[in-house]
Specification:
The chain is mainly alpha-helical. It has a domain at 53-187. The chain is 63% helix and 0% strand. The protein is elongated and about 80 Å long. The protein starts with a helix and ends in a 15-residue tail after the last helix. The model has no long low-confidence stretch (mean pLDDT 86).
Length: 193
Amino acid sequence: MMALVRRYWLTLRRPSLHYSLGFLTIGGFIGGVLFWGAFNTALEFANTEPFCTSCHEMRDNPYQELQPTIHFTNRSGVRARCADCHVPHDWTNKIARKMQASKEVWGWIFGTIDTREEFLDKRLELAQHEWARLKANDSLECRNCHRYESMDFTRQGRRAQFAHSTALESGEKTCIDCHKGIAHRLPNMAEVP
């Protein structure tokens, strides 16, 4: 057994002595393509609604709140999935968000939010984290679907026309400044400093 391990170790340690450079290059390329494909498949699977709602904390709390909103059911049949609002579409920002989400997985493992009461107790803190993230990235996820250039202000109410045109001109506000609670219920805002 030790001889077999030693032989494999020597092969791994100096592969060019045992295999041609062409074989190693082609093998490395194929291995890289397979790794990249598996990585992206796993990444896209982690963006699906069944994955997001696989834990009861998400299924029983935020997902239930999303269902009666216009982002879930509407006249056009276009539906926002969890990842549409919570994961950026471009690759670099998506990877950064996935790394941030590892803290959420850590919380799930250790049962930070196991009950509805615990969710409601942490709701303001969770919402503020998400609002700050959206403010910092200029509501990037909202702008994947809602673009000022595509808005027909004449078909909006007066208040929306004024707010959108003013926000467009000034560039100071972003979507989340006015649209908090658009897909999930607002936390108790009396607690906001």
